[in-house]
Amino acid sequence: MDEEHLEMNRRSWDARTPLHASSAFYDVDGVVAGRSTLHPFEPLELGDVTGCSLVHLQCHLGTDTISWARLGARVTGLDFSAPAIEEATAIARRCGIDAEFVIADVYDAVQALGRRFDVVYTGLGALCWLKDIAAWAQVVTELLEPGGRLYLLEFHPLLGVLSDDGPFLDPAYPYFWREEGLVLADNSDYAAGPEVLDDDVTVEWPHPIADVVTAILGAGLELKQLSEHDVLAFAPWKELEEVPGEATLWRLPAGQPQIPLEYSLLAVKPI
C-alpha cells in the first residue's frame, strides 16, 4: 500500500472513530456492562485462551479484544488510528480490563510490539484494508510463538460482489479485483448512518478466500480449519432476519437460496 492510500484510509477511520464510539451498533455501554462482541462459534473454533497472550490486529475500538480478555486471554490490541486506540484504552479502563493498546500499522506490528504471542486474532472487516495479503501473513507468522494459533473471522468475499442498493443479492462487482483495488467515495457509515462523513474516500482490496489461504500457507502456517457461515454481523439488506437468540446476528430468510456470509479459519505455527 502506498503512503497516499494509507493516509487516505487512516483519515477515514480517524473520522469514524467518535461516531462508532457513540453508536448503537457498537453499543459500548453494553460492552462495559458485560456484553461479548464475539460470535458464539469463535471461542469454540479457536479453543481455550486462558492465560494465553493474544494480539488483536486492526482492533479499532477494542471491543473484540476486551471480549477475549474476559475469556482469560492476556490481550494487546493494535491499530493504525490514534483516536481508535484512545477510545479502546478508555473502554478497557471502563470495563476494568487490563489491556495494552498500541498505535501502529499492521505491517509494522513486529517492530512495534517487539515480542511473540500465543494467539494472533483478526476480526471482521480487516483484510480489505490491506493490499499485500502475503506480507500480512508473514507478519502473523513472525508474531506467533511456535505452536501459536492464528484465528481469523471475515466477511465472505462473495458479499463484495453484491449490490448495496440494487435488487436483493444482485451481482454488481467483480470477484477478482487483484492489484487495482476499489476506490470508494461515500459519506455514509455502516454504524452511524448516511451523510455523516465529509468527503470520505477510501481504497479497499477485496481478497478471495483462496488468496488468503495461499498467503497463510506460504508464510509457513498449517491450516487446521476453514469454515463458512450463514450469519452476518450486520444487516446490509432489509430482507435479512435476526437470528433467534442472537440479536446482533442476521441471516437470509427461510426460502431464500442460502449463500455464505462470513468465513473463519484457524492456522497453527509449527513447533
Write the layout of secondary structure elements.
Layout: H1 3-21, H2 28-32, H3 41-46, E1 53-57, H4 63-69, E2 74-79, H5 82-95, E3 99-103, H6 109-113, E4 117-122, H7 133-143, E5 144-155, E6 182-185, E7 201-204, H8 209-218, E8 222-229, E9 241-243, E10 246-251, E11 262-268
Parallel strand pairs: 1-2, 1-4, 2-3, 4-5
Antiparallel strand pairs: 5-11, 6-7, 8-11, 9-10
Helix pairs in contact: 1-5, 7-8
Q: Would you identify the CATH architecture?
A: 3-Layer(aba) Sandwich
- Count helical runs: 8
Give the strand order, joined by hyphens, for the main sheet. Answer: 3-2-1-4-5-11-8
How many separate domains make up the residues? 1
β content, as a range? 15-25%
Q: What sequence of helices (H) and strands (E) makes up the elements?
A: HHHEHEHEHEHEEEHEEEE
Low-confidence stretches: none
Mean pLDDT: 92
How many strands appear in the DSSP assignment?
11
Give the N-terminus to C-terminus distance in angstroms. 32 Å
Query: So what's the CATH class?
Result: Alpha Beta
Helix content: 25-40%
Shape: globular
Brief digest:
The protein is of the alpha/beta class and about 270 residues long.
